[in-house]
Amino acid sequence: xxxxxxxxxxxxxxxxxxxxxxxxxxxxxxxxxxxxxxxxxxxxxxxxxxxxxxxxxxxxxxxxxxxxxxxxxxxxxxxxxxxxxxxxxxxxxxxxxxxxxxxxxxxxxxxxxxxxxxxxxxxxxxxxxxxxxxxxxxxxxxxxxxxxxxxxxxxxxxxxxxxxxxxxxxxxxxxxxxxxxxxxxxxxxxxxxxxxxxxxxxxxxxxxxxxxxxxxxxxxxxxxxxxxxxxxxxxxxxxxxxxxxxxxxxxxxxxxxxxxxxxxxxxxxxxxxxxxxxxxxxxxxxxxxxxxxxxxxxxxxxxxxxxxxxxxxxxxxxxxxxxxxxxxxxxxxxxxxxxxxxxxxxxxxxxxxxxxxxxxxxxxxxxxxxxxxxxxxxxxxxxxxxxxxxxxxxxxxxxxxxxxxxxxxxxxxxxxxxxxxxxxxxxxxxxxxxxxxxxxxxxxxxxxxxxxxxxxxxxxxxxxxxx
Length: 467
What we know:
Radius of gyration: 21 Å
Number of strands: 18
Largest sheet: 8 strands, mixed
Low-confidence stretches: none
Strand content: 15-25%
Number of helices: 14
Helix content: 25-40%
């Protein structure tokens, strides 16, 4: 463990405050803050001093939705826990929550153990797990209780992907009832997969095989319908609900309505829905396949409603759903049949910068940036204030952020293990300069100084929005 570090002269931004303060780090934790230039701050002594003058000092990002090494569509997500967490650190994210997968016919425990084996000793930053529940039965329901006790407190179900991850309404209701008792949080992929499969079959029969049809068959109304149904099932079960990767304005409206009724319903969106659209899916020469993800990209007019939802807190969290597949050899599996394109986009490295650009563009405030990217995900998934803020006692996960540096996003310079960028050529203002994870330098003035195995598994309490 390093001894003491002091970060001097920066603007410390959390979800609740902005203050010019010096930050003292000791034994991997935030030890104290004091207003810069005061006797209290000048009394901080440390072996290492970092000058943050003219920079922001922000909590490390918490990306609560990633899929490293996910098996999907006959291939695997191209980022391993080693490459993916290193890229996350480059982008100012210091904690990920990834999804362990229960395969049909197997136990939750087998799935969780398999994901622990993938991650352990390989991560540059700290990590936790959600559990994908694909097979609801009496044994699974009992296991959910045990997982909550050991810090896996959220369970993802799918209304999409029949034959793979799909759960029917009865299975969903049973899992929700169980989570109402054990304090867990159900995360829902809300799309009507049964109806979508009919539309896919009909589109292919008409010879509509290009990537843009992926967006056309996965209709916004079927996202809204599934969101509505998930909310009603949760209401019947007396359970909270977190809807992942909300992309359609009609789905935001369902969440807003439920929240206005006082229901414990939460929503997440992702940078791709805020910055990309069906225009990208329609790019010629199969380039559109790079943007195939589910829920799909929507027409541009949906973006304003997503930003509005983030401002009004009808959407609380921005995660990436980072699930990269290379264009060459992976996305290309769907040439001639859009339904065979592996679903997923790379983004774990871009989220903090894209959301800072949203501050520059006037969509959100600086504190809201930190809230949706750091504090709210930490609270939502039981890691606050250990993660997601800068306060005495918190883990010293700290980013020195240069709000004036300019960058052009490109696959040439990113660190994700994927052969394209979803944001190729995009000009951004703001860039990560230095990153500490539990007081250890992972990125030092734009140089990687971390190592695989620094990151540790982080058990979580139940959602702090429900306590």
